[in-house]
Specification:
Number of helices of chain B: 13
Largest sheet of chain B: none
Distance between the termini of chain A: 31 Å
Shape of chain A: globular
Structural class of chain A: mainly alpha
Oligomer: heterodimer
Largest interface: A-B, 33 and 34 residues
Helix content of chain B: over 70%
Strand content of chain A: under 5%
Helix content of chain A: over 70%
Strand content of chain B: under 5%
């Protein structure tokens, strides 16, 4: 059984287990809808009051917001093991049992959780993307579709990588480190608006340290027919790859870190 | 009465223990605040609004400073409902609603003061337009503080209503997250209520959620005049009373029908 097959099997089983409590599941899914709807409402109200943000029109802002929601919640949907469960696995000593099995730790952690409630958040994100592309009159072409797919995929890897920072800290300190939230959830809040409106320190933070700007904003600007930082068109195809770079660096650090893992016992 | 006072003092001391969490919380809240203030600066460059940017910054910072007051919840009570040890609380010679009201009030008060005061001091030092401004007047500050206290009363009452739902459903996630989300949006944390469309504001400022932090902040920044203050404080007190009565009634109903989990 290869890794992908194992992952898909686990996902199937976890989905079934979530659906065992349909009433609770529906309630929570609706709660997610309200949450993401509330976030979108904030964007709608901002656009209603301010009309545009520097050179970005209201439609463009919907596109950026949608791109962030889709990427972030796809990650939470499929990577819940890393984005949510890991600290409690370390604290409870549940991680020990994974060490005994003949599979990679990371694979098993990824297989351990899913969050299907996020489906409504993704739906809101898709709606916002469609709305944004209609309002900004995007003329879709094959390269643009490819760039969009690449951007979403790479952003997911980036977000997964950033959440893994927390996991790596957690292996050493047992306690989950909330500071990393500034990068993950803070990044989500900040980068649902285009990066070039922010002052320099934030630009550097989200272009170099946590390169949301490279995986999302450069390709999105290309799709919207504009240019971020005045960079040439071909950069839109290259820069999203930074997401994969962050992810692989974090995988390496994670595998190093796990060698120092000391069980909490119990 | 003495029991309640000692519960209050105990929870205050307990909250003081978590200094590491406090620093983490402050840094996170500061970061979110800076991002929001930067966003509003950029928006104001595109189209300036009637409300000056300094007031928006002040609004954002005060919301962030007292964020803890809104989200702090009693984890013990959640666990007790889930594993059934809430049955012990039924044996205590105290009123259960008051007991938990006091507990959560101490937690919210101390938690937000520990984070809020350092944050307010730091944000005073930020450059003009980015940080927090001085209160509009001494009277405004005074009324704002009273309003903040009344807001705290409303917040604890809301928290207890949420808990009453949890006692019914036993699952803390569904209803709790729904109510909390409503709170984050309608209390002005996500987007200052002052930036909502003007026609909405008439309704929104009447809702209980606007009494939590929005009313105190507007009194502080002079958006509400001192002459309006008695009316606003009265509105807050009214909501606090209504919410507490709803909560007491709800808890009483729950107490009669309580199903204890576990064995």
């Amino acid at each position: 059984m290869n890794t992908v097959h194992l992952y898909l099997r686990s996902m199937g089983m976890l989905l079934k287990s979530h659906l065992q409590y349909p009433a609770s599941f529906i309630m929570q899914t609706l709660a997610q809808l309200v949450m993401e709807g509330g976030e979108m409402l904030a964007v709608i109200l901002v656009i209603d009051r301010f009309e545009s943000l520097k050179e970005w029109s209201g439609g463009n802002l919907f596109f950026f917001f949608g791109l962030m929601s889709v990427s972030f919640y796809i990650t939470e949907f499929f990577g819940r093991g890393i984005t949510g469960n890991f600290p409690s696995m370390v604290r409870s000593g549940q991680l020990d049992s994974l060490l005994l099995r003949p599979r990679g730790i990371l694979t098993q952690v990824l297989c351990s959780g899913t969050d299907p409630r996020r489906i409504t958040c993704i739906a809101v994100g898709v709606a916002s993307l469609v709305m944004g592309s209609n309002l900004s009159d995007v003329s879709w072409s094959i390269p643009k579709v490819l760039v969009l797919a690449e951007s979403i995929l790479m952003s997911c890897l980036l977000i997964l990588g950033l959440f893994m920072i927390e996991c790596i800290f957690c292996i050493h300190s047992v306690k989950s480190v909330e500071l990393v939230n500034a990068l993950t959830y803070g990044g989500r809040s900040a980068c649902q608006y285009p990066i070039d409106i922010y002052p320099k320190p934030l630009k550097i933070l989200f272009s170099v340290v946590a390169p949301f700007a490279l995986t999302m904003h450069v390709p999105a600007a290309y799709i919207l027919g504009k240019s971020l930082y005045g960079w040439p068109v071909w950069t839109a195809f290259i820069t999203p790859l930074s997401g994969a770079v962050v992810f692989f660096v974090m995988v390496m650090l994670f595998n190093r870190g796990i060698k120092f893992y000391r069980s909490t016992g119990s | 009465m003495r029991a309640y006072i000692s519960v209050f003092r105990m929870r205050i001391k307990m909250e003081l223990q978590y200094r590491g969490a406090m620093i983490g919380g402050i840094v996170c809240q500061m970061f979110f605040g800076i991002v929001l203030v930067a966003l509003y600066h950029a928006l104001y460059e595109s189209k300036a609004q009637a409300m000056p940017i300094e007031q928006v910054s002040t609004y954002v910072w005060l919301q962030q400073a007292f964020f803890r007051m809104m989200v702090a919840t009693d984890p013990d009570l959640n666990d007790k409902i889930k594993n059934g040890s809430i049955s012990y609380d039924l044996c205590r010679p105290v009123n259960m609603y008051t007991f938990y009201y006091i507990r959560v009030a101490a937690q919210k008060l101390m938690g937000s003061l520990m984070r809020g005061i350092p944050m307010i001091i730091v944000t005073f030092l930020l450059p003009k337009g980015w940080g927090i401004t001085l209160p509009a007047s001494g009277g405004g500050l005074f009324c704002g503080l009273i309003a903040l206290f009344l807001g705290l009363l409303c917040m604890c009452a809301l928290e207890n209503i949420t808990m009453a739902f949890t006692m019914r459903t036993l699952d803390s996630r569904g209803m709790q997250s729904l109510l909390n989300l409503l709170m984050v949006t309608l209390s002005g944390n996500l987007l200052p209520l002052t930036l909502f469309p003007d026609s909405w504001q008439k309704v929104i400022t009447m809702l209980p959620y606007a009494q939590l932090l929005d009313a105190p902040i507007r009194l502080y920044s002079g958006e509400y005049l001192i002459s309006e203050a008695p009316l606003i404080l009265l509105r807050q007190a009214g909501w606090a009373l209504i919410l507490i009565l709803i909560g007491v009634w709800f808890w009483e109903q729950n107490r009669k029908k309580m199903i204890i989990q576990g064995g």
